[in-house]
Specification:
This protein has 534 residues and is mainly α. 59% of the residues lie in helices and 0% in strands. The chain contains 29 helices and no strands. The protein has helices at 16-20, 36-40, 54-64, 66-74, 80-90, 96-110, 114-127, 129-139, 160-172, 175-185, 192-201, 206-214, 222-232, 238-244, 259-268, 273-282, 287-299, 303-310, 318-328, 330-341, 348-361, 418-429, 434-441, 444-456, 462-469, 472-487, 491-504, 507-519, 523-532. Residues 365-375 have a biased composition (Pro residues). It comes from Nonomuraea purpurea.
Length: 534
């Protein structure tokens, strides 16, 4: 955390939609109050308990299957040690491995989702939360069969609802009960699958998570994918990310595991930012999840997360959530925007404009001395298209002339006045040959800077406008964005960028077109670049 920020700017506060899918951890963010559907997926809230009658329901289920249980326990091929555990449990012993063995036998006979949940609730009601956690860990190491009882060397998927429910109850239980659960679970970590289950249930034991990260599930299908998701929900330090060396992949996003992203942020805090942004750069994330994903990045209390979001400001949802982050972290916003504005980054112009807008809205914040503005040119020196009468459309806040880069007339000593700048922005919204007169009268670099600043604010109209306002550097900057657009499935935007580069028409822009025609990210883009070449 950054000690030069106010305390509120170093705190992760998740929104309710993000907290709704959270897998809670002890001492972490509280989940949203779960509804009926949330509880059906294992969601719990502080103060939740298990119905005491669950013990009788589980006992009845075991009794109904007593004949099948006995047949499996008596089978010659059943593992003697597991059979001994099961018989000890049936005789009343405090034996989580035996409880897991009985649950496994009945689960295969019933073949339904409710069976493991019935036993889990029964264990909690009759034997306590620590016992239930140990039994779930043991269950992961038992082979699934209707005929015999055997240990399992590979990973077995344990009911996700039962695991999530027990994890939540452990997160909110009294300290003594939690300590007792951790102590008992230490004896149930003898295999890889048990270690993964235990770390998911009590992720506060970072040393245990270390071991899991050093020996993670290797593939992304079946039970390995299941344990990969549980391990993402267990990480709690940057060291865990280093040990894993993983990136989020498309298989990490589905309707039942999206909450893992907020859970990772709860555990890792700002350290999760590069992992999330890397996925945003590479993966075609389903649109409803994409908005929550961008929101999550914007909530991370760190300079790095803020800067990464700023650098992607033209993307869908990025603008609204960066503006929200500026209000949430006002001091951080000044700090990061000032640094980026003073750099040679492609985001420098955007950062400078946002900084001016931010300081205008928050005059109480200390900020850098503004760069001196070039004096306005007299009306008679302006191109007629910027002074003739016309109805200027309503412009967004970022199009305020005080926020945008100044456009200089050729010679550099004078700039467009505010009214002329507004008129220029209005013309840029529907770019046509009228902008040619502006390009002839104005300094090409400062005109391109204005166009780039407008483009980075993410409005669709600004991309075609760059063809009339941009220069060679604009062409290079646009070309650098094209591979990412194609990778994320926004090829239409990439084709519009090719058209804009062709419209720029400078020698450097034409070189960029030739390069795209030869080395573009895919065949369709290469063809588009070749066709656009004059």
């Amino acid at each position: 955390m950054d000690d030069h920020f106010p305390p509120a700017e170093d705190v992760l506060v998740l929104s309710e939609p993000l907290r709704r899918d959270l897998h809670p951890r002890r001492g972490g963010v509280l989940p949203a109050e779960p509804g009926v559907s949330d509880r059906a997926l294992g969601g719990v809230a502080p103060g939740d308990t298990v119905d005491p009658g669950a013990a009788d329901v589980a006992a009845k289920l075991a009794e109904e299957n007593r004949g099948h249980i006995e047949a499996v326990l008596s089978a010659a091929v059943s593992d003697p040690a597991l059979v001994a555990h099961a018989r000890a449990y049936l005789s009343g012993a405090d034996d989580p491995a035996g409880a897991a063995a009985i649950a496994s036998i009945v689960d295969r006979a019933q073949n339904g989702n409710e069976t493991p949940r019935t036993f889990t609730n029964g264990w909690i009601a009759s034997r306590g939360l620590a016992f239930a956690a140990c039994a779930l860990a043991e269950l992961s190491g038992i082979a699934s069969s209707t005929e015999d009882l055997r240990p399992l060397d590979s990973l077995r998927q344990v009911d996700s609802v039962s695991l999530r429910r027990v994890r939540g109850l452990l997160a909110f239980c009294p300290e003594e009960e939690y300590r007792r659960a951790v102590e008992r679970l230490a004896a149930h970590r003898g295999t890889r699958s048990r270690r993964l289950v235990v770390s998911y249930l009590v992720p506060t034991r970072h040393d245990w998570v270390d071991e899991c990260c050093a020996d993670p599930p290797s593939a992304e299908w079946g039970s390995n994918a299941f344990y990969r998701e549980r391990l993402w929900a267990s990480v709690g330090t940057p060291r865990h990310l280093e040990l894993l060396g993983w990136r989020l992949e498309e298989s990490d996003f589905d309707a039942f595991t999206f909450g893992m992203r907020a859970t990772m942020a709860d555990g890792l805090g700002p350290a999760v930012a590069p992992v999330l942004v890397d996925a945003w750069d590479r993966i075609r994330i389903y649109k409803p999840w994409r908005e929550r994903f961008v929101e999550l990045i914007s909530l991370l209390p760190s300079d790095e997360a803020f800067k990464l979001l700023l650098e992607r400001y033209e993307r869908e949802f990025a603008r609204e959530y960066l503006l929200a982050a500026m209000e949430r972290f006002p001091v951080r916003a000044v700090r990061v925007l000032s640094t980026v504005a003073a750099s040679d980054s492609t985001s420098a112009l955007l950062a400078a404009g946002l900084l001016r807008m931010h300081l205008k809205a928050h005059p109480e914040l200390p900020g850098p001395d503004p760069a001196p503005r070039v004096p306005d040119a007299p009306g008679e020196d302006l191109p007629a298209v910027l002074t003739e009468p016309g109805r200027a459309p309503r412009l967004p806040a970022y199009a305020d002339p005080d926020v945008l880069p100044q456009v200089l007339l050729k010679g550099g000593g004078r700039a467009l006045p505010a009214a002329a700048t507004r008129r220029l922005v209005a013309l840029a919204k529907k770019p046509d040959e009228r902008l040619d007169a502006v390009r002839d009268a104005c300094d090409r670099r400062s005109l391109a800077d204005l166009g780039w600043a407008l483009f980075l604010h993410g409005d669709a109209w600004a991309l075609p406008a760059l063809g009339r306002l941009g220069d060679g550097r604009t062409a290079r900057d646009l070309a650098a964005l094209i591979p990412g657009w194609v990778a994320r499935g926004t090829r239409a935007r990439a084709v519009k960028a090719v058209d804009a580069i062709a419209r720029i028409g400078t020698a450097e822009a034409l070189e960029v077109l030739d390069e795209l025609a030869e080395t573009g990210p895919d065949h369709a883009l290469r063809d588009a670049a070749a066709r656009a070449r004059p």
